[in-house]
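Ticket #4471: complex job returned nothing on first submit. Input attached below:
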Amino acid sequence: MIDINEILNAKDYCHQFVKKDFAKGETITSYIEKRKQIFIMLSGEAALIRYDEKGNKDIVDFFREGSVFGEAFYNVYLNSELSVVATKKCSCLSIMYDDIVRKCDPRCKYHEELTSTLINLLFENTTHLNSRIEVISKRTIREKLHIYLETLSIESYSNKVTIPFSLTDLADFLSVNRSAMMRELKALEDDRIIQKVGKNTYRLLYR
Amino acid sequence: MIDINEILNAKDYCHQFVKKDFAKGETITSYIEKRKQIFIMLSGEAALIRYDEKGNKDIVDFFREGSVFGEAFYNVYLNSELSVVATKKCSCLSIMYDDIVRKCDPRCKYHEELTSTLINLLFENTTHLNSRIEVISKRTIREKLHIYLETLSIESYSNKVTIPFSLTDLADFLSVNRSAMMRELKALEDDRIIQKVGKNTYRLLYR
DNA sequence: ACAAAATTGTTGCTTTTGCAACAATTATTA
DNA sequence: TAATAATTGTTGCAAAAGCAACAATTTTGT
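Support reply: We reran it on our side without changes. The output follows.
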């Protein structure tokens, strides 16, 4: 697994890494221009939120421990505004892209650890994004729910899964209409494919 | 921009990188188990294809120069089979994950270059995946087409854009029904938002 | 502990999308 | 270059999803 402490150790030697804490509700960063800023979530949770012209908010992504985010990974030329807002108290490490490759000091051996840690994080992140595409590219809400729950189940080695956020947010995450999703969740229950066993917790009946 | 030659130079010193050429139609790799194999596309084009139970094929992703792919980025536990198939003659570099971080030889200074090149590639790749999610998470086919064409337009600094693959493949890429997409493409023309100016080439009329 | 806010649950109606089938056009290759 | 395959274009109908509105329940903040 990823050892974020390596990066924190590096921080003691390099002044190029800035650790910052945020309270719930605070804006961590806004994607305004394609600067080369990278954030690594050390603890807590945040959401990437889009505000469109009419002021409607829409959740684009969720970040948690180990997530990598920032303008550096986004084509920010599209008109709507993207902001990362802490959904729980959280702490992030901010690094400028150029500081990753360029060594601060020939003696700084922590840069090496940083790069391998970062590669690990980027690998995990890529896998996560591929899974997400896998889910949202399904054609029907039923299939999206099904593969989403199945993935949760496999990851937790259990046929009992708890959706890690509200159903309202899940609808956003799957990019479907919430009430249509509720309807389909009900249909999956009626068809004995899943069984509700608690708030936002379901048992998959076919495995 | 990414300099893939750095990796090729490294190859002269490390025996851990394998360059391989593939003819059109050849299978480059199949995602069977989560081994830690990584591929970097040096030239040419390939597609990640899923074959479901019924033998239907479905294009999951497209790879081109600079694309990073492989089992290492996929949760391969889902039942359907994923294969990367060359859509044009192409050449790929294959690396095992463990060989990236672990140096082959203390004198091998190319490993350092490899890591920074790989970080660059992973950055570009992450941006690409985020853009893709941006597109397919739109609720309607019209919006998907719109943002997809707009992104192409911005990337090419032109309001005249050519879709880089067939419309059949585009429907797969946007994960929508092809005929529904054709209908919507027509509607965008009728509404004077786009104008067809050649095979798979459109002019965006609103910029 | 209570009021306010957020989330979950539900429904009827409308719009969009998928599906299937087929014709027309363009590419491929023997 | 002829025939074969692939892609593009089009349509009617069925299924799915979106939307809006509201009630019920749970959570949150003071």
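Chain B has two domains: 4-124, 138-204. Closing as resolved unless it happens again.
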